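Feature request, filed as a ticket because there's no other form

It would be nice if the structure record came with a short human-readable summary line next to the C-alpha cells. Right now we just get the raw output. Example of a typical job, pasted below so the devs can see what we mean:
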Amino acid sequence: MKIVLTRSMVPGDIQYIKDGLDKEIKGQYEFVVPAEFTEEGICSVIEGTDVLLGPFVTKKIVETAGNLKLIQVPWTGMDTFDFSSVQGITVPICNTHSNADSVAEIGVAMVLDLLKKVSYHDRKMRVGNWNRDQKPLNLKSKMLNKQTVCVLGFGNIGSRIGKLIAAFGAKVIAVDGHAKAGEIAEEVYKNDQIKEAVGKADVVICTLPLTDFTRGMINGEMFACMKDSVVFVNMSRAAVVDEDAAWRGLESGKIGAFGSDVWWNVPKRGESQSYPSVKHEFWRLDNVLMSPHRAGFIEDSLPHLDGAIENIIALSKGEKLSGVVDTSKGF
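Raw output as currently delivered:
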C-alpha cells in the first residue's frame, strides 16, 4: 500500500502515524513525503498511490494517482478541503473524529471555568487579591446543575459534551439535523429552529462544522435571541461566530461569559506569537476565557491522528471505513 502525504507535518506526527500503522501492518506500506507540497511536487510521486493523506487535493492529483482507494484528512475540520476538485469521483473521502473525547472534556472544562470563575480568581490570587471588592466580577459561582445547556451540532463531539454536561444535572437540548431526543438530549431542534433553541438556554456550546452554511451563523441576530448574560463557548471554528457580534455582545452584557478554543487570528505556521484578534481586545475582558486551539491534544498521544491510522489499517484489511464525508454537505 502506497501512502502519499499531501500536507507537511512535523516529524513527530509522521512518526506517530508510522508507529500506529506498524502495530498492525508493518512492512505492508510505503509512506511517501513529497519534496514539495505543491500540485507538481505531489504529482511527481503520486503514481500508483492507494491513499492520499492530507487535505490538499486537486483534480490533477486525483487523476494522476490512477487507482486511488482513499483520501484521508487526518483531523475533523474539512473547511480547507477543496470539494470542487473531487466532484464525480467515487473514492471515499474521510476525516477523523478520534479526538472527540479530548475536545469534549476541554469544552466542559471551559463551561465550568466560566460559571465558577476559576481562572479569574486564580489571576487575582497570584497578586494577593482576594477579590473582596468583587470587581469587576463577583465571588459568586453559577451552578451547572439545573441549567439549560444548548449544544449546537450533536455529532461526535457535541453528543459527548452533552453526556458529560447531563451528568452534572443540567438539562441538555441540541440543535442537529439528524439527532433525536433521547437519554442525553431531552429536546432536539432542527437547524431551522436554532433561534428557538438558543433562546431557552443559559449556556450555549457550539460544535458546528465550518461550512458555507454555518460561516458567520452565530451573528448579532443570533445572539439577540439568547438570554441576557448567556454563557457561550465555541469548540468549532472561529469563523462560525461573527467576531464583531461577539465583541458587541460582551460589551453590552448580552453575553455574560465567552470561552473559545478557536480564534479569528492565529500565528503563522512555525510561529507562536499572535493576539487572537486584530480587531478587538478580547484578552482584556475578565469574562473571556481563551484557549490556543489545543483541545484535541493530550499527553503522550495525538488522538486526532488515531482515526486516520485506523482507517488506513481498515482499508488494508478490507474493513469498513469510518468518518466518511458527505461531499454534498462538506462534512
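Something like this underneath would help us a lot:
The radius of gyration is 22 Å.
The mean pLDDT is 96.
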